[in-house]
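Review session, final week

We close the course with one last complete record, chosen because it touches almost every idea we covered. It is Mitochondrial heat shock protein 60 kDa, a protein from Paroster macrosturtensis with 218 residues. Go through it on your own first, then we will talk.
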Amino acid sequence: GKGKKEDIQRRIDQLKDQIDDTTSDYEKEKLQERLARLASGVAVLKVGGSSEIEVNEKKDRVTDALNATRAAVEEGIVPGGGTALLRCIPPLDSIKCYNRDQEIGVEIVRKALRVPCMTIAKNAGVDGSVVVAKVEDQKEDYGYDAMNNEYVKMFDKGIIDPTKVVRTAMTDASGVASLLTTAEAVITEVPKEESAGAAGMGGMGGMAGMGGMGGMGM
């Protein structure tokens, strides 16, 4: 940190080039650590708790946050809460389909892009279809804040997702979907029906789960 600024910047540029060129995840991680020391400094996070379970839970949250931050630094951010996916729907109208199968495929993608926002709304206890329709009618980063049950500018509220996370999720989902279309059979697990008593307790768990939606918003 005490070297000449020109030399430090030159070294930073070299590290960035090395990160782009390497194919090793391990080497990329080490190079990013060296880059952080030169460009942004290094911070130490101390995680504590009243029990080992609590400490591990907090460590997992910190790890998730760090990974999300790294992804955001790499490729930027988009509006969270499923808003970015809803903004991908209008361009689908420009796709020219040559047969019925292609039309069905486009419609499947259209429905899939609505699911994240709709699910977040349902988990918040509101009508997901109404929320999706209202967000679709708007533009840019206007979306639904499930925590406060209001429609807001997502960037202003800090409700964001790393672009890399959203892009990777879409790429992986489309890959699996394409694979399933060529499969002769699919093995799945049939969910067990819960009794009335168990279902009631599950509702309490759902309430607790709402607190985690802020993480999704990032």
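Two points worth writing down before the exam:
Residues 199-218 have pLDDT under 50 and may be disordered.
The domain at 79-189+210-217 is CATH 1.10.560.10 (GROEL; domain 1).
Good luck, everyone.
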